[in-house]
């Protein structure tokens, strides 16, 4: 460690990372709201004045995923034109509208509208937040800072499950409505990404922001070197033609990275964990356990939080590939056990109820620690600066659209043919995902863009462009 590094600190980076991840925490609250609310919405005590049908609940649940496609498109335009910080502010406004819409007299229309705003903001959680954190973080703690989002989401889900199980419907909404407003006010004071500041010609401000983030003086050699690196990168970026998707597909490392991430996102968004998360209370109600499904469901976000904590503490040691591959493999085993249990029930054999509950805990732990966060961490690391914002936006759009299809298909398959058909489908997807991670996905831990592009081009001698 150099003397410059020893003088600095990382606490500002941690503080700002936690601050911007309050939006992800709010998204976790919104994710967790659906599961306990589903039972209430389909009961005679529904706040809509009548029990909602299974089809209506399916649309309320899945509309967020479909809206995420629109949200991702909005943020693609926002973050490059107005900055990463503006993207986070827009997310906070959308999240405020979510709770406001749920506080008005409940109906299928208002609930779907609220979920649309939730989905749009959620797209930013997986697009803007990882990008912003990557661009403010120093390399030595990049993995840990990037993993905070998964922990924030899982804690949000846990808290909502707690409130949903013990508090009145509208009491919960009044408690959480102020959070995105507070986040908005606090984020107004947050710094813009240094990379974006250099891009728009605000070099002096970028220098001050970097010094603030690193805990160093603006004249420190380390800060000056980092600013010069950003300036060289920006000059190169401005010297090349406008990068289109045709350019991406003509450039081998970019094309290969994009195709790999498309496949990873497809299996990530269709692996079944998101469906279980949205229908936890209903699935546990069918498990045969005698205690309250809402109380049982508290174990789900607890294990999701556990998975997130494990990832934060191990991601910079074990790497992204091992954690993600293991998560998909364990999820495949969990769904296989749940499918077999469901088939036995069809033929009059009752498997112990704890099997389904335990398997759900396993797959949600894997979702919180691997399946959910790692694809977005990897895509922020594998893409060059020139293409990062655009391609991450397209991939987030794909993720949300696929999640929407997954929720609709899961609901329809389960209602028509039984849960075992959906579970077996998820087994196949997770087995394919495990093979994809093992055989195709490159490890990004501790590697520069130059090293990754060299690996993606399979040893091509021509030196690749290096932008971080």
UniProtKB/TrEMBL annotation:
GO terms, molecular function: transmembrane transporter activity
Parts of the chain that traverse the membrane: 12-37, 57-76, 88-106, 112-133, 145-163, 169-188, 257-277, 297-315, 322-347, 353-379, 391-409, 421-441
One Pfam family this sequence matches: Sugar_tr
Membrane topology qualifier: Multi-pass membrane protein
GO cellular component term of the entry, any: plasma membrane
Subcellular location: Cell membrane
SUPFAM superfamilies, alphabetized: MFS general substrate transporter
Domain Major facilitator superfamily (MFS) profile, first and last residues per copy: 16-445
InterPro entries: MFS_dom, MFS_sugar_transport-like, MFS_trans_sf, MFS_Trehalose_Transporter, Sugar_transporter_CS
Keyword Transport applies: yes
Assigned keywords, A-Z: Cell membrane, Membrane, Sugar transport, Transmembrane, Transmembrane helix, Transport
Classification via PANTHER family: AT22075P-RELATED, PTHR48021
Record's protein name: Facilitated trehalose transporter Tret1-like
Top-level taxonomy: Eukaryota, Metazoa, Ecdysozoa, Arthropoda, Hexapoda
Gene: LOC111358392
